[in-house]
Structure formats: C-alpha cells, structure tokens
Amino acid sequence: MIKSIDKRNSFKETPFDYSVIKDNKMMIYWHRKHIKIITGKEFVKVKSKIELAVNQDEIQLILAKFTRNFKRGNEK
User: Fold this and answer.
1) Which of 34, 40, 66 is nearest to 53 (CA)?
2) Which residues, other chains included, contact 25 with Cβ-Cβ below 8 Å and sequence gap of 6+?
3) Less Cβ crowding at N or C end of the chain, within 10 Å?
C-alpha cells in the first residue's frame, strides 16, 4: 500500500500555485491570493525541489512547507 502525502485530501483542489518572476523571485499563491515572495537561497532550494517533484501532490506539499504557517486566525 502506498503511503499518502495528503491525509486530509486538501491538495485535490490544488490550493497552492506559483509563478517565477524576474530577478530570481517566486511568488506563491493560495487560492489565487498572493501570500509569499521567495528570493535568494530559498528560491534556489524551492525551485530545485519543484523541478524534481514527480506529481502535483508533491509540488503542493513543497509549496505548503515553504509558506510555513501563514494562516493565523480562523481563515477559510
């Protein structure tokens, strides 16, 4: 049996998205809302992990980890 990355099935909707912009910056979005800009060493690390990702679930997990805990209240 294959161990699931997403036990709550929250990545089926693909809530996270990203875009690479000039000057080696990456913008991360959550449900089409801009939440974080990644630059420098962190950008290189995230980009290399995304390039090695096998499927969309892994990309979602990588983006979720790099956004850390951006939600602080009872946002939905």
Assistant:
1) 66
2) 37, 38, 39, 43
3) N
pLDDT class of 61 with cuts at 50, 70, 90:
confident
For residue range 2-35, what is the model confidence (pLDDT) as tens digits? 455 555 666 667 788 999 998 899 999 988 999 8
What's at 63, amino acid-wise?
L
**Confidence (pTM):** 0.75
Instruction: Please give the radius of gyration of the chain, using alpha carbons only, rounded to the nearest integer.
Output: 13
CA 65 to chain centre: 7
